[in-house]
Amino acid sequence: MHKFYQEIYFGRHSDKKGTRLKFIRIGFIGCAIAFGLHYFADDITLFFLVRIAAGIASGIMIPAMIAYTYEANIDKKRAATVISFHALGWLAGIAAAGIASDLKLIFIISAASFILGLIFTIKLPNPEQKKEIKPGTTKQVILKNKFLFLSLLLRHIGAAAVWTILPIMIIERWGGDLYHISIVYVANTMTAFILMNIMASKIKLSNVTKFKIGIGFTTFVFVGLSFVTEWWMAMPFMSLVGATWAFLFIGGNFHLMENNPRSTSTGIFSSTLSIATVIGPIVAGSIAYVFDYISVMYFAIVIIICAFIVSLKIKNEVKIES
């Protein structure tokens, strides 16, 4: 929830200041501290507080980092390649968690990764961008792109609901062990990384079309998962969701940055994902409590079909150069 607020606020603030790197570095420092403190959170109160800190710290840098990547690469094909390392980071993190198999150690690994990332920012150039100081910009961006944000919200509520119960299903219903969760999720991130790398150079579609494909094809992921009976059978569907994520993440963010203040619009995009990860687990828990786990899959299918219908109202716009 705190990440939701921070991404909107700091995304807008980055555009007002016309700088990105400062927010990226502050975010790395904050995340190293916040995720490192998870190691010492041995009761629910402390854990709650460090989760708030993690949401604030990550919310500072994500919009600025996406905008910086886009602006730093004149060739936008390279920007898509750089952004693909977002998926590779998830892959490495999931694999590290599976290898460590230690709930304390993973937070040390996480903090160390953020420190390493901060060190790499030392060599990055710090270009100044045009300051976006017009009042009411955030509201205007939301209204202008309401169908994109609404379809993204609905899609990710459905996805977040399933991701809440999927690890439980892998172990309790599909005969998997703890490390099998990591194996299944790696199929997702590996596919996303590969596809993001070829997205701009090989897939000649408009960004809006890519976004719609990402939204619509997510439906088939949860239709497939509803028929799974063994943990390994989930892997092809997790690869498919990695592909849909690559399409909607690159397509959605690039469309926004081409036609809106960049850090502001990507901040709203990221905050939409964050609020969905709050709503999705609540819905999943409620449905699973009243009905069963598989009913969460059915809910995801229905809400993502609704998301795709909404996405059909998104129109292509003339690219803004700056």
Can you describe this structure?
Helix 2 runs antiparallel to helix 3, helix 4 packs antiparallel against helix 5 (105-121) and helix 10 (235-259) packs antiparallel against helix 11 (262-290). This protein has a single domain (2-123, 132-311), classed as Growth Hormone, Chain: A (Up-down Bundle). The protein contains twelve helices and no strands. The radius of gyration is 19 Å and the shape is globular. By secondary structure, the chain is mainly alpha-helical. It has helices at 2-17, 21-37, 44-72, 76-100, 105-121, 137-144, 146-172, 178-202, 207-225, 235-259, 262-290, 293-311.
What portion of the residues fall into strands of 2 or more residues? Answer: under 5%
Largest sheet: none
Name the helix and strand elements from N-terminus to C-terminus, one letter apiece: HHHHHHHHHHHH
Q: Say which CATH homologous superfamily is assigned.
A: MFS general substrate transporter like domains
The CATH level-2 architecture is identified as: Up-down Bundle
| The CATH top-level class label | Mainly Alpha
Question: Mean pLDDT, as a whole number?
Answer: 86
Count of discrete alpha- or pi-helical segments spanning 4 or more residues = 12
How many domains in all? Answer: 1
Helix percentage range: over 70%
Please compute the radius of gyration using only Cα atoms.
Answer: 19 Å
Report, as a whole number of angstroms, the end-to-end distance: 33 Å
Query: And the CATH topology?
Result: Growth Hormone, Chain: A
Count every beta strand, where a strand is a DSSP E run of 2 or more residues: 0
Decide which structural class fits the backbone.
Answer: mainly alpha
Low-pLDDT segments = none
Envelope shape: globular
